[in-house]
Amino acid sequence: MRRTRIQEEKEELILEAALDVFSVRGFHGSTIDQIADVAGMSKPNLLYYFRTKEAMHRALIDRVLENWLEPLRAFDAEGDPEEEVRSYVRRKLEMARDYPRESRLFANEILQGAPNVIDILKGSLKDLVDEKAEVIRAWIRGGKMADCDPHHLIFSIWSTTQHYADFDVQVQAVLGPRNVVANRFEDAAQFLGDLFARGLGIGSAHKGCRVAIAAIVRGLDPAKIVRHLASRAGFRGLPRLRKGATS
Question: What distance, in Å, lies between the first and last C-alpha atoms of the chain?
C-alpha cells in the first residue's frame, strides 16, 4: 500500500531522531523511549511506524550505505586513474563533512562486530568492492598505475577520509587557527589526492615517464622525447644530446 505524505514525513522525523540517538549512544545504548522523546512523539505512536529498534537502525544503515557507496559505484574503468582516484577521495571527504552522524552510526556498528549489517558487508558491499578492485587491476595491467593491492587501496581511502568525520573534534583542536580549520576538508582533499597520486605513480610526472618509455619502445629519438617533456614541464634551454653520448 502506498504511504501517504503524512506517513512519509513521520517516518523521516523518526529516522532523524533515531540517527541523533544511535550516532551518540550506539545501538545497544539507545532505547525506543529516547528516540520517541527526541522525535517529540509518544512511544505507541512511534511503534506504529517502526515496530522495533532494529527496524529503525536497519533503515538508517541501508540509507547510509546506499549514499556512501555511490562514489565507489562511479569509479569508471574508462576514466583516467588519477582523476578517478582524486574524485573518489574528494567525494568521500565531502561525505565526511556533510554526514558526520551517519559516519559515527556506521563506525559504532562496526565496532560492535556489525551484528545488524554483516549480511550486507559479506554480500552487496563485498561484491561492489571486488568489482572495483578489478578496475584497479586492469589499470595496473595496462601500465596506468603502479602495482598495488586494490582492496587495501580502497581500505586506505576509506580510513583516511573517514577520519575527518569520526575525529573532526581532534582535527579542529590540533589545527587550531580558524582559517585553517575552515579549509580543513579542502586542504585534506588536496593533500590526500597528491599522496595517493604519488604513491600509485599516477601523477603528471609519472605520466610523462610512461609516455617516454612507450615512445622509446616505438623507436623514437630519446633526446627529442626528453626535450619535449621538459618543454611541457616549463623547462627551457636544455642542451642537445650528441648522438651516442653517454652519461
Answer: 79
Distance between CA atoms of 71 and 18, rounded to whole angstroms?
A: 25
Place of cell 582516484: 85
Question: Exposure of 202 by Cβ count < 10 A (0-12 exposed, 13-18 middle, 19+ buried)?
Answer: buried
- Condensed to tens digits (0 to 9), the pLDDT of residues 53-109 reads 999 999 999 999 989 899 999 989 999 999 999 999 999 999 999 999 999 999 999
- The per-residue b/e assignment along 115-137, b for 16 or more CB within 10 angstroms, e otherwise, is eebeeeeeeebeebbeebbebbe
Output the 3-class SS for 158-208.
HHHHHHHHHCHHHHHHHHCCHHHHHCHHHHHHHHHHHHHHHHHCCCHHHHH
Give the domains, in start order, of the chain with CATH numbers. 5-64 (1.10.10.60), 69-202 (1.10.357.10), 204-247 (no CATH)
Query: Among positive and negative, which fits the CA dihedral 201, 203, 209, 211?
Result: positive
* Sign for the pseudo-dihedral over CA of 45, 51, 56, 59: negative
Read off the pTM: 0.77
